Amino acid sequence: MSAEVTSPFTVFFDRSGQPLDAGYVYIGTAGINPEVSPISVYWDTALTTPAAQPIRTIAGYPSQNGSPGTIIINQATYSIVVRDKNGALVYSNLNAFIDFANVLYSQTYAALSALTTASGLVNNAVYIVAGAAAAGDGGAGMFRYVAGSTTTVDNGMVLTAVNGRLFRLATGEIEAQWYGAKGDGVTDDTAALNAWLAYLVANGAEGLLNNGNYLTTSKLIIDESSVTTEELTRVSIRGEGDGNTAIQSNHAGRCIEYQGGTGGGLGSYIKFSGFRLNGSGQVGGVGLWLDNCAWAHFEDMTISAFERGIDGTDVLSTVFDSCRIRFNFMGFRFAYSDASRPNAIAFRDCIIGANYTYGGLITGGASINIRGGSLEGNGQTEGVPTVGGYGVKLVDCGVEGATGLVASGVYCEGNADTADFWIVQTTGDVMHSILGCSFARISSSYFVTNNIRFDRSGGNSRAWVGGCGFTTFNTYVENSARRYLDGPATGVVDAGNYYQSTTAAPAASDTRGPFCGAFDDTGASISLPKDWTCANSGTGLVTVTHNLGTTNYAVVATTIEAASERVERITKNTNSFIIVTTTSGEVLANAAANFIAQLY
Question: Which of 88, 172, 217, 504 is the most exposed place for a label (fewest CB within 10 A)?
């Protein structure tokens, strides 16, 4: 009689497929983190030699006083957590049905091809492979052989085998390289990536796109169109940083196509992070195409060199965090198709720049938030303006909400042709807000006509612009035909903005203030809002002339020199007010003063 000699000891591996050295193994109560709820484990089948937790490993083996040992438990179900020497998670399973801690590994293979064609595999035995095609290529893993199985093969989690199937033993993230994706920038990874994505969609799994540059020659598809309820089976994809992980789209089509469901299925709950999408500059190329997509989160991504970086229909309640949308023909575009207007879309600390035609276009949206980040170099290329170009444009917002653009703390520079922010309203009553943003025109060869442009031909929409700074430098020269802010006289609230030059300051605005000003003890202006004047009208009398055209405003004033001087009273008129100053003895006396005026 003959028999194969196998190792009597468990071997633990790290995430790269190498034996886990100086690692930590925790065994605990099923359904509970074993690090907080450990169970009794032993070194012998008689359960007389307890093993202290966490169990350390040496060269992959459980360490029993420095020698390989076998971990024994006295129950069928348990939880397990394995960490490397730095405490980083290797894998965990809170409801373990496969006994990772006691399996005997029959054999190790250098590549999957050797295992899938091997004969004589033992039913329910676990086999180790060092790589998909070669050791260390990212396809390493452990597989259980099930004789007679006819489960559908996907060449990643389920592999064909002689007279059966091989099932990958894995917890946590599902790696793209397990499906044969090379990420070498040369091999066509389209089929491998689509097989990987199909598994993620079917199982609601989290996928890891390993370091590499993945070449694709047709679109990658995430199809959840059949989902009609808020099922907890949604896709999450993580790269290893967009400086390390990229998908190179070498075709004139969509790089990633996401199709969401209907009804409750509109809630996508997807998350992409830590990788970039690189186009090839072809006509029709789209980096990220979204339809029927709500509650999605995109983080730390770069999308560049496409005709359209992002193209979305029926997208709502979606967040872009620290993303870079650059060097596309058009940056991003959102519109209505058949389910929802583009509502509650947020760009937080994103870089939207160097897109040839425009940075962004939103039609019919509501609550479009652009917070922080920058809007730079859109609507031009290499200093040559694109006719009709702009930074971000919003058209007829407010169909399903009461606010349109909400921009705050955005750095705007070097955009060209029309405007940094361009608002067009042909209908509707909606409020737009642009707060605390910086605007700069920097070149005489490319510049925007207006930093903010508000075209309203219908409805009663308004724009509130407050606390912003408008400036120029380098070769750009101010021109009254190119005002910082341009809009209807009764539609723009100009609130406490800084304008470097009066030449390009707004010609008219429906300003509610606050207006701040000051004059000296001769009645001469120290500082006043644009187009306001002041003059001494006699001892202790200063007349401030403005263009408010109403008496529906409040004025507060105080003297700013001698403590014995005070403001006695203020008389308001339609286009002026008079400040009366006296001494403490109520004798009229000229005094320097400052004031704040606010419409109500």
Answer: 88
- Looking at residue 295, its amino acid is W
Contacts of 227 (CB under 8 A, 6+ apart): 233, 260, 261, 262, 264, 265
Tokens at residue 589, please? Answer: 């006396």
Q: What is the DSSP letter of 197?
A: H
**For 63, which DSSP code?**
E
Q: What is the per-residue pLDDT across 349-361, written as a single tens digit (0 to 9) for each?
A: 999 999 999 999 9
- As a whole number of angstroms, the longest Cα–Cα distance in the chain is 125
Q: State the residue for tokens 């910086």.
A: 438
Count of structural domains, the chain: 4
Q: What is the pLDDT of residues 473-497, one digit of tens each?
A: 899 999 999 999 998 867 888 888 8
pLDDT value of position 492: 86
**What tokens does 587 get?**
């004798």
Report the phi/psi class of residue 457: left, alpha or beta, with left for phi > 0 and alpha for psi in -120 to 50: alpha
Domain-embedded: residue 426 = yes
| Distance of alpha carbon 122 from alpha carbon 144, whole angstroms | 9
d(CA 476, CA 598): 34
Round to whole Å and give the CA distance between 314 and 225: 13
Q: Which domain holds residue 218?
A: 179-499
Q: Do 196 and 202 form a contact (C-beta atoms < 8 A)?
A: no
Residue 226 included in any domain: yes
pLDDT at position 76 is: 63
Specify whether 224 is located in the same domain as 337. Answer: yes
Q: Tell me the residue type at 390.
A: Y
The pTM of the full predicted model, rounded to 2 decimals, is 0.72
Residue 50 has pLDDT above 70, yes or no: yes
Copy the structure tokens of residue 151. Answer: 């489960």
The secondary element (H helix, E strand) that includes residue 599 is strand 593-599
Separation between Cα atoms, residue 210 and residue 556, nearest integer Å:
63
User: 3-class DSSP state for residue 507?
Assistant: coil
Name the 3-class secondary structure at 191. helix
Q: Binning pLDDT at 50, 70 and 90, where does residue 101 land?
A: very low
